[in-house]
Amino acid sequence: NTVMAAQMTNAHRRFLQILMSNGITEGSEARKLHQRCCETDKVYYAHDKLDDFISTINSHLQPLFMQIRKGISEDDGRAHYAVAILAETELTKMASDYTEIELELFRKTMDLIIFSENGFASSTDILNLADQLKTKKMKKKEAEQVLKVFVEDKWLSEKNGEYTLHTRCIIEMEQYILSNYQDVARKCNICHSLAIQSQVCESCGIGMHLPCVRKYFRGQTEPRCPKCNEFWSCDTP
């Protein structure tokens, strides 16, 4: 029982174009954009139909191995949208924007972040990698510049010299990360999307995003793991 994909209109095309040029768009911005595109192109608009609007675009993107995906910011739990490329190959989308050596630094940074306890890597640790790159060695000064660009382009975000994956990166690279880091990459037990910054149950090993932890344990005096029911030993935020 295949439903024919709804027509793509200029409103859909405009929405997609702006989403792609933004890199990542916060939920309330996406809702405003939806309204603006529909009104500009005189297309039927209903405020609660953003998901349908996006799935129409996605049905047309499917043959191109692309998809608008929704993800949650690990900082504040707010929804964001980004256009993901579903190819499993090396970081396809980034490959056109960066040199081989920059990509290698990014991959190594990603390793540090994903293998870390808390989803962060310090700039010291990242800069120490710079002179061990296979492509060619990179001077610390150079590496600092490259990191800055990764932050500007919203692949990494940085707080007090600690780097983590930006929400955009998590949304767009979820497939890549889950298949390349099978043993360590975990999904949040609450919202089921990839969790980089997370708390982990000491008994059974499930992980939860901090905003999800906050919501789940709200008002509980004795927080217990949603899976194994053991006492939740992390300090809940």
Automatic annotation (TrEMBL):
<comment type="similarity">
    <text>Belongs to the NSE1 family.</text>
</comment>
<dbReference type="InterPro" id="IPR014857">
    <property type="entry name" value="Nse1_RING_C4HC3-type"/>
</dbReference>
<dbReference type="GO" id="GO:0005634">
    <property type="term" value="C:nucleus"/>
</dbReference>
<keyword id="KW-0233">DNA recombination</keyword>
<dbReference type="GO" id="GO:0000781">
    <property type="term" value="C:chromosome, telomeric region"/>
</dbReference>
<dbReference type="InterPro" id="IPR001841">
    <property type="entry name" value="Znf_RING"/>
</dbReference>
<dbReference type="GO" id="GO:0061630">
    <property type="term" value="F:ubiquitin protein ligase activity"/>
</dbReference>
<dbReference type="InterPro" id="IPR013083">
    <property type="entry name" value="Znf_RING/FYVE/PHD"/>
</dbReference>
<feature type="domain" description="RING-type">
    <location>
        <begin position="188"/>
        <end position="229"/>
    </location>
</feature>
<dbReference type="InterPro" id="IPR036388">
    <property type="entry name" value="WH-like_DNA-bd_sf"/>
</dbReference>
<dbReference type="GO" id="GO:0000724">
    <property type="term" value="P:double-strand break repair via homologous recombination"/>
</dbReference>
<dbReference type="GO" id="GO:0030915">
    <property type="term" value="C:Smc5-Smc6 complex"/>
</dbReference>
<keyword id="KW-0863">Zinc-finger</keyword>
<keyword id="KW-0779">Telomere</keyword>
<comment type="function">
    <text>RING-type zinc finger-containing E3 ubiquitin ligase that assembles with melanoma antigen protein (MAGE) to catalyze the direct transfer of ubiquitin from E2 ubiquitin-conjugating enzyme to a specific substrate. Involved in maintenance of genome integrity, DNA damage response and DNA repair.</text>
</comment>
<keyword id="KW-0158">Chromosome</keyword>
<dbReference type="Pfam" id="PF08746">
    <property type="entry name" value="zf-RING-like"/>
</dbReference>
<keyword id="KW-0234">DNA repair</keyword>
<comment type="subunit">
    <text>Component of the Smc5-Smc6 complex.</text>
</comment>
<keyword id="KW-0808">Transferase</keyword>
<keyword id="KW-0862">Zinc</keyword>
<keyword id="KW-0479">Metal-binding</keyword>
<protein>
    <recommendedName>
        <fullName>Non-structural maintenance of chromosomes element 1 homolog</fullName>
        <ecNumber>2.3.2.27</ecNumber>
    </recommendedName>
</protein>
<dbReference type="GO" id="GO:0008270">
    <property type="term" value="F:zinc ion binding"/>
</dbReference>
<keyword id="KW-0833">Ubl conjugation pathway</keyword>
<keyword id="KW-0539">Nucleus</keyword>
<dbReference type="InterPro" id="IPR011513">
    <property type="entry name" value="Nse1"/>
</dbReference>
<dbReference type="Pfam" id="PF07574">
    <property type="entry name" value="SMC_Nse1"/>
</dbReference>
<keyword id="KW-0227">DNA damage</keyword>
